[in-house]
Amino acid sequence: MDEVLVRTDQVGRTYSQGKTPVVALSSATCAILPGARIALMGPSGGGKSTLLHLLAGLDTPTSGSITWPMLGARETLRPLKIGLVFQVPSLLAPLTVVENVEIPLLLGQGSTEKARAAALDALDRIGLRSIGEKLPEELSGGQAQRVAVARALATYPKLLLADEPTGQLDHPTAQQLFDVLLESLEGTETALVVATHDRIVAERMNTIWHMHHGLLEVQA
């Protein structure tokens, strides 16, 4: 019963736009188990990002409840237990590739030696160790996003949440990135939830959930 990474029960999120309330998410109920491969599909503005932010503990619901039975308290989720990949790589410009990948490990109070070793291992897993000393400005868009994936993978998170990770990439580069992501998680119990507009990406996952106007449709 408690072998669930994250569970939501009738979770809602409403924002204020001036005096007008805007419902971004309405009564979403779901559970994510270890090893899950879930695609979250729906139009822009449908609530996908809002749900991912709640699952990650980046935001709090205005109704309903969310718990992380296997992960612990919300304050302990990041940067080690939950990994995040966004549509834009968000690499820190002054830092090298390997220094960017080290960040969650150092924030998790790991030693500098262990952080460097884990960062290099993560870059190995996605085939980018050779560019470890480059700066973000020297990378292609596809390389930068793969580095962002390495950063998320470096802590061996229990849950990886990716918000349109291929949205800014051309189709061949997007498919290559997704190949790398799935291969890196193969054989692990890390759960993966990917918000995507790409039907081809979604169909490579085991489960597809749909969102529309803040409503979540969960399929087994």
User: Got a strand count?
Assistant: 9
Order of helices and strands: EEEHEEHHHEHEHEE
Instruction: Report the total helices.
Output: 6
CATH superfamily: P-loop containing nucleotide triphosphate hydrolases
Query: What's the architecture, going by CATH?
Result: 3-Layer(aba) Sandwich
DSSP strand (E) fraction?
Answer: 25-35%
Residue stretches low in confidence (pLDDT < 50, at least 5 long) are none
Portion in helices: 25-40%
* Gyration radius, rounded: 17 Å
Give the CATH topology: Rossmann fold
Shape: globular
Residue-averaged pLDDT: 93
Largest sheet: 6 strands, mixed
Assembly state of the chains shown:
single chain
CATH class, anyone? Alpha Beta
Number of domains: 1
Structural class, by secondary structure, is alpha/beta
Separation of the first and last Cα atoms = 17 Å
Task: Tell me about this structure.
This is ABC transporter related protein. This protein is an alpha/beta fold. It has a single domain (6-217), classed as 3-Layer(aba) Sandwich (Rossmann fold). It is built from six helices and nine strands; from the N terminus they run βββαββαααβαβαββ. It has helices spanning 48-55, 97-107, 112-125, 141-153, 171-185, 199-202; strands spanning 6-17, 20-32, 37-41, 63-67, 82-85, 159-163, 191-195, 207-212, 215-217. The protein has a six-stranded mixed sheet with strand order 5-6-7-3-8-9, with helices on both faces. It has a three-stranded antiparallel sheet with strand order 2-1-4. Helix 5 links the parallel strand 6 and strand 7. The relative contact order is 0.21.
